[in-house]
Structure formats: structure tokens, C-alpha cells
């Protein structure tokens, strides 16, 4: 008992003597260990009982399902997630996703999200073409209170999800999980500019190259099937994590 207490107390004192360089190196090692654990423990698969639960629930929850199905191509969703940096800070990422083609319409990153930042990104995401009508969002009062009238100004019908019903924003939640699994969990973020650059490359890859079961195994923006007899070339994207393959004779 005393020995365990002495070890814990010694570790506590030693933590004050470590330099920022030592902490940064330890952080890198821990991030790598977490990445290995996630690779060895993939996402759990749904059981038949889980599928049956959601099928039965959809039978009774028809209002929300009908909204999604009837206005699929004129609905967008918006959500936030954070990415930790090497200095233990958090960078916030905003994602705007269209339901129809699962396309990431807009994204932005910042260290300090506030209402003015949200409004500016809404202007950038919806410049006045009015191709979308409904906007689905969460119920974060701190960020969204007072912005409802601004959404009306942009021509959008504000459609917040019910409290505790994150599955109502399931499309965006899934995209965020995909971004974390395929990019954010594999990199060490040094700055806002670095994360913005990598996300920009990944969003371009996601919209134009990455296939999706929800759009018949096509990419959100659509990709023409290439045919040829030349050599197959590859182009690295998103820091070399992924590649686009094409016939050399069709390359620009």
C-alpha cells in the first residue's frame, strides 16, 4: 500500500519537472498508441436485434423520416467537432453536408467558434442560390441562440433536432466519424493552417473520389468511369494517406 502511494506521489512530482519538449514527445507517443488501438478495435457491428429496434422505431417516428425522404435533395445538415493539437488545445471544425448526394458543401476551422464566425460561414456556404430549403442542426443554445432569424434571411427553414436525438442528424454524424477515422486520428495537428490544408485536400478527395453506398457506390460529385490500355498511375491526396488512380493516357 505504502509502496504504491510512494510511486504515485513520485510520478506526480516528476510531472512538474518535465519540460514542454518531453510532454510533446509523450503526447506523440500516446497519440500513436491510440491509433494502434483503434486499428485493432474497429467499430462494432450492428446485431439483428439492433436493426430490428431501429426498424420498429421508424414505424412510429414517421414525421422526421418523412421530412428526410420528401425533401432529401433540398436539405443540408450542419455540425461541429473538435480536433486536439500537439499543445493540448482544440481546433473546432464546422461541416455543412447535403443530404441528396452526401456532399460536403462547406467546411471551416477555428480556435474560437462564436456566433459571428457561424454567420460568416453560413454566408459562405449559402451565397444566395437558394438550392437548399431545410437546415438540420443540433440544439446547442450557446452557439445557435439568436441565429434563427439569420437563417430565415438566407432562405432556410431552421430544423433543429430533438434533444438527445443525435441520430436525427445521422448523416453528418457519420461523415464526422469518417473524417476522424480516416484523417484526424492519423495526424498530429500543429496549427489551424495545417489542419485546414489537410481537410481541404481530404474534402476534395471525399467529394470527387471516395465512393459511397448511399449514392450507388459513386462519389458525391460523380466520377466518370475511365477505360484505357495504358499504365495505371496514382496521385496522392490528403498528405499521402489516400490515392486517386487513373489511366496515364487519360491524365491531363
Pick out its properties.
252 residues; alpha/beta; Nucleotidyltransferase, domain 5; five-stranded mixed β-sheet; two-stranded antiparallel sheet
Question: Would you kindly provide a written description of the structure presented here, covering whatever features stand out?
Answer:
This protein has helices spanning 2-17, 20-40, 48-60, 62-70, 115-125, 141-144, 148-153, 170-182, 192-208; strands spanning 75-84, 90-98, 104-110, 134-137, 157-160, 232-237, 242-247. The protein has 252 residues and is an alpha/beta fold. The strands form 2 sheets. A 5-stranded mixed beta sheet has the order 3-2-1-4-5, with helices on both faces. Strands 6-7 form a two-stranded antiparallel ribbon. β2 (90-98) and β3 form a beta hairpin. The radius of gyration is 22 Å and the shape is globular.
Give the N-terminus to C-terminus distance in angstroms: 70 Å
Quaternary structure state of the chains depicted: single chain
CATH topology of the domain at 48-193: Nucleotidyltransferase, domain 5
Helix content: 40-55%
Report the order of strands and helices. Answer: HHHHEEEHEHHEHHEE
Mean pLDDT: 80
Low-confidence stretches: none
Q: What is the overall number of helices?
A: 9
CATH architecture classification name of the domain at 48-193:
2-Layer Sandwich
Radius of gyration from the CA trace? 22 Å
Q: Strand order of the main beta sheet, please?
A: 3-2-1-4-5
Strand % is 15-25%
Briefly note the structural class of the backbone.
Answer: alpha/beta
Classified in CATH, the superfamily of the domain at 48-193 is: Ribonuclease H-like superfamily/Ribonuclease H
Overall 3D geometry? globular
Amino acid at each position: 500500500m505504502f509502496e504504491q502511494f510512494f510511486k504515485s506521489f513520485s510520478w506526480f512530482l516528476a510531472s512538474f519537472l518535465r519540460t514542454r519538449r518531453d510532454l510533446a514527445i509523450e503526447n506523440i507517443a500516446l497519440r500513436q498508441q491510440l491509433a494502434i488501438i483503434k486499428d485493432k478495435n474497429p467499430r462494432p457491428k450492428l446485431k439483428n436485434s439492433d436493426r430490428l429496434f431501429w426498424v420498429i422505431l421508424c414505424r412510429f417516428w414517421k414525421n422526421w423520416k418523412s421530412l428526410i425522404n420528401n425533401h432529401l435533395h433540398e436539405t443540408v445538415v450542419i455540425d461541429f467537432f473538435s480536433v486536439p493539437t500537439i499543445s493540448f488545445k482544440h481546433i473546432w471544425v464546422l461541416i455543412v453536408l447535403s443530404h441528396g448526394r452526401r456532399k460536403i458543401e462547406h467546411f471551416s476551422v477555428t480556435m474560437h467558434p462564436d456566433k459571428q464566425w457561424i454567420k460568416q460561414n453560413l454566408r459562405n456556404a449559402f451565397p444566395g442560390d437558394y438550392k437548399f430549403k431545410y437546415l438540420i442542426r443540433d440544439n446547442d443554445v450557446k452557439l445557435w441562440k439568436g441565429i434563427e432569424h439569420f437563417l430565415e434571411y438566407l432562405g432556410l427553414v431552421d430544423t433543429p433536432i430533438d434533444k438527445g436525438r443525435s441520430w436525427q442528424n445521422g448523416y453528418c454524424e457519420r461523415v464526422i466519424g469518417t473524417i476522424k477515422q480516416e484523417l484526424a486520428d492519423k495526424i498530429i495537428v500543429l496549427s489551424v493552417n495545417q489542419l485546414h490544408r489537410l481537410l481541404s485536400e481530404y474534402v476534395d478527395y471525399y467529394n470527387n473520389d471516395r465512393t459511397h453506398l448511399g449514392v450507388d457506390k459513386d462519389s458525391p460529385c460523380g466520377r466518370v468511369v475511365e477505360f484505357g490500355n495504358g499504365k495505371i498511375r496514382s496521385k496522392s491526396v490528403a498528405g499521402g494517406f489516400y490515392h486517386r488512380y487513373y489511366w496515364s493516357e487519360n491524365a491531363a
